[in-house]
Design a protein that fits this description.
This protein is mainly beta and 124 residues long. 0% of the residues lie in helices and 47% in strands. It has strands at 4-8, 10-12, 18-24, 35-41, 48-53, 60-62, 70-75, 80-85, 94-101, 113-114, 118-122. The strands form two sheets. Strands 2, 4, 5, 6, 9, 10 and 11 form a seven-stranded mixed sheet that branches.
Length: 124
């Protein structure tokens, strides 16, 4: 079954930066046909959408908590979607997932393909 593969993330001190990337596990799968969202889930909390970008890259959305600090982008030639995270805060600590679906909808159930998740830890 097709999956998405996240890379990047890790550990950083508050105020630092990290980058997450998302690619398809199969080279024949084109992410360019899909909207791609980044979700995160902290321990004891529900998974929520952080950011999303449409298939053409013409529309992006950010949760209020990350607006102005995170930037989502895509390179349809390289078949990847990235999330640049700056000015990180301890409350950004979570497992981050990328997901692909037909539209940039809020509800995760609308996204068909998911990655395994990548840990991001922000701590001093």
């Amino acid at each position: 079954q097709l999956q998405l593969v996240e890379s990047g993330g890790g550990f950083v001190q508050p105020g630092g930066s990290l980058r997450l990337s998302c690619a398809a596990s199969e080279s024949t799968f084109s992410l360019s046909y899909y909207a791609v969202g980044w979700f995160r889930q902290a321990p004891g909390q529900e998974r929520g959408r952080v950011s999303c970008i449409t298939a053409t890259g013409g529309f992006t959305h950010y949760a209020d908590s990350v607006k102005g600090r995170f930037t989502i982008s895509r390179d349809n030639f390289k078949n990847t979607v990235s999330l640049e995270m700056n000015s990180l805060k301890p409350e950004d600590t979570a497992v981050y997932y990328c997901a692909a679906g037909p539209y940039c909808l809020e509800d995760s159930k609308h996204f068909q393909y998911w990655g395994q998740g990548r840990q991001v830890t922000v701590s001093s």
